[in-house]
């Protein structure tokens, strides 16, 4: 059973998401919060698998709330917002969020996204990913010392940044999916990254990947 905390300052949105999630046989909502401070308190109390977090909330914004939650807990954060703005994507992922969706997401896509995040994967809405890449290329790129990655690990990192799954990377490199998982685990450990979402941030910030115009 996947335990979820829902945090959104709009009551109708908060209750709507909770109702959709509670209707699933493998998901249970353990708490709902109307602001970021309450979200942090409930996360520490219930230790949910996934925190579904709005960006703009009173008392404490969703990004700072996520920063505090993931610093103390194994909880994984899925950000959801009305605002398709690049800075929010960057800040949320840098704070430790594992996924980012817009509020117009379909109900079953929301449920599947929670499942993906709970499994330990990362998830970005496609339209957000495109804007994220453009923003990194235009404003956020800066030099980092090269990491001690092997040529194959660098190749895998570039493919992760393109949004490919482990299965797709395995097909691209003509290796087994298990081999890809091993490469991903090693490069995350070497870079000190939490998950694939942070790997995408690293790849574009460091200039390892440059998007096509």
TrEMBL record:
<keyword id="KW-0804">Transcription</keyword>
<feature type="modified residue" description="4-aspartylphosphate">
    <location>
        <position position="54"/>
    </location>
</feature>
<keyword id="KW-0238">DNA-binding</keyword>
<dbReference type="InterPro" id="IPR001789">
    <property type="entry name" value="Sig_transdc_resp-reg_receiver"/>
</dbReference>
<keyword id="KW-0597">Phosphoprotein</keyword>
<dbReference type="InterPro" id="IPR058245">
    <property type="entry name" value="NreC/VraR/RcsB-like_REC"/>
</dbReference>
<feature type="domain" description="HTH luxR-type">
    <location>
        <begin position="142"/>
        <end position="207"/>
    </location>
</feature>
<dbReference type="Pfam" id="PF00196">
    <property type="entry name" value="GerE"/>
</dbReference>
<dbReference type="Pfam" id="PF00072">
    <property type="entry name" value="Response_reg"/>
</dbReference>
<keyword id="KW-0805">Transcription regulation</keyword>
<dbReference type="InterPro" id="IPR011006">
    <property type="entry name" value="CheY-like_superfamily"/>
</dbReference>
<dbReference type="InterPro" id="IPR000792">
    <property type="entry name" value="Tscrpt_reg_LuxR_C"/>
</dbReference>
<protein>
    <submittedName>
        <fullName>Response regulator</fullName>
    </submittedName>
</protein>
<dbReference type="InterPro" id="IPR039420">
    <property type="entry name" value="WalR-like"/>
</dbReference>
<feature type="domain" description="Response regulatory">
    <location>
        <begin position="3"/>
        <end position="118"/>
    </location>
</feature>
């Amino acid at each position: 059973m996947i335990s979820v905390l829902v945090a959104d300052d709009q009551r109708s949105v908060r209750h709507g998401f909770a109702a959709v999630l509670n209707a699933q046989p493998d998901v249970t909502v353990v708490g709902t919060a109307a602001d970021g401070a309450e979200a942090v308190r409930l996360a520490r109390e219930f230790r949910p698998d996934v925190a579904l977090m709005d960006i703009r909330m009173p008392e404490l914004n969703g990004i700072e709330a996520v920063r505090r939650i993931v610093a103390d807990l194994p909880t994984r954060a899925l950000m959801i917002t009305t605002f398709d703005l690049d800075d929010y994507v960057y800040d949320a992922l840098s704070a430790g969020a594992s996924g980012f969706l817009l509020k117009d997401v379909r109900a079953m896509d929301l449920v599947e996204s929670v499942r993906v995040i709970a499994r330990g994967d990362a998830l970005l809405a496609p339209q957000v990913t495109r804007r994220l890449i453009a923003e990194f290329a235009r404003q956020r790129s800066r030099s980092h010392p090269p990491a001690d990655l092997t040529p194959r690990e660098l190749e895998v990192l570039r493919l992760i940044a393109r949004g490919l799954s482990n299965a797709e990377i395995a097909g691209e490199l003509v290796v087994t999916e298990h081999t890809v998982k091993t490469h991903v685990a090693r490069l995350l450990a070497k870079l000190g990254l939490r998950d694939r979402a942070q790997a995408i941030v690293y790849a574009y910030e460091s200039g390892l990947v440059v998007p096509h115009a």
